[in-house]
Amino acid sequence: ALAAGAEVIISTASGLFDVQVPVGAVTAAIENKGGVVATQGVAYLTARGVSVATSSLSNPGRVEATGLVERDGRIYLESEGALTTVGTVKASRAADGGDVEIKGGFVALGGTISADGAKGGTVKVESKGMLSLADKVTAKGLQTSGGTISYHSLGQTIENSTGFSDVSGRTDGGKLSLNAEQGVMSSGTYLASGATGKGGMIDLAGFGVRLLSATLDASGMTQGGLIRVGGAFQGGKDVGIRGDNGVLRDGYLLRWGDLPSISSATRVLINDTSSLVVSSTCGPAGTVVVWSEAQTTMAGSVLASGLSRGGFVELSSADELRHADLSKVRGAFSLLLDPKNITVGTVAQASGWSYAAIIGAGYSGN
């Protein structure tokens, strides 16, 4: 354990080791340039200052925690202020991937964060401000199903093209979620594929969602998975499907069981070089839901092909749907367009929409 603060409490109650920093120091900083290795144990790195500005944690080095018993193989990185990592963070156990928990006032993730194992482990990231994603985060299932990765920021989440999140499994894909309360702009790659089983689940949500050359893949061999961008099916309102013969309701909702809640975005833009994949090579394809409360701009591609049946795709908004090219939705058994207004644009207009997403709504194309 590395702890920085005015007071540090170490507890070994019930045989478990625990570190708490209840009182912050004027300046509390941790910088790990070397290696912190907890064989068959837990690694804690905690910095607590009296304010966000006086607390920081930096990890350009290596943090590893492994375990031969279930309770070990855990890593905790926590800072009241800035938390950055460009080194290696690896948690694993004999039976499955380990657990990584990262909390900070501002979080910037680089380097490699891994909770891979025979069964994928868990990675949980929380930021009280902005979250920056720039490198590899994995919770892969090397022998069975993929694990879980969750990102939550109270500010914006920004991800460049080197960002890579993977909860794929040797059998089924895992679960991957991102919720940015002040909006997300991503050019990253999100994988939740199932090599021999079902595709997993990918949820991207926030005040606004902008995907620019992003890739979301929840494909599976026996069944495609579920991708939700900007909200739940029909915004979670469940108003029903006209002409529903049971097949549509099952495809969009029932076969996924009780789903976790997902917030609705005000605006969603998916540009022409982004792709959403829920295909299946041996069974039915999965489901894609793209939703917003005010405006959805969908210029990207959707691959929802399946051997036994195509996928179920909803591209909608409570108000306006701007769509560039329906031919880029391939293999779908059902395509639902159910907004208040539909705007059909040219390729040139779609490019302008993409630029407006980066530069601002006043972009004219001139």
Task: Pick out its properties.
single chain; 366 residues; mainly beta; 22-stranded parallel β-sheet; 11-stranded parallel β-sheet; 2 helices; 35 strands; globular
Description:
The model has no long low-confidence stretch (mean pLDDT 88). The protein is globular. It is mainly beta and 366 residues long. Strand 2 and strand 3 form a beta hairpin. It has a 22-stranded parallel beta sheet that branches. An eleven-stranded parallel beta sheet has the order 5-8-10-12-15-18-21-24-27-30-33, with no helix packed on it. The chain has two helices and 35 strands. The N and C termini lie far apart (57 Å).
How many strand elements? 35
Helices and strands: which structural class? Answer: mainly beta
Radius of gyration, whole Å: 22 Å
Question: How far apart are the first and last residues' alpha carbons, in Å?
Answer: 57 Å
Low-pLDDT parts are none
Described by the principal axes of the CA atoms, the overall outline is globular
Largest sheet: 22 strands, parallel
Estimate percent helicity.
Answer: under 10%
Helix count equals 2
Mean pLDDT over the full residue set: 88
Strand content: 35-45%
Secondary structure layout plus pairing:
Elements: E1 2-4, E2 7-11, E3 18-23, E4 28-31, E5 35-38, E6 42-47, E7 55-59, E8 62-67, E9 74-85, E10 88-93, E11 99-109, E12 112-114, E13 122-127, E14 131-133, E15 136-138, E16 148-153, E17 157-159, E18 164-166, E19 175-180, E20 184-186, E21 189-191, E22 201-206, E23 208-211, E24 215-217, E25 226-229, H1 247-252, E26 267-270, E27 275-277, E28 287-290, E29 295-298, E30 301-303, E31 312-315, E32 320-323, E33 329-330, E34 334-336, E35 341-344, H2 347-359
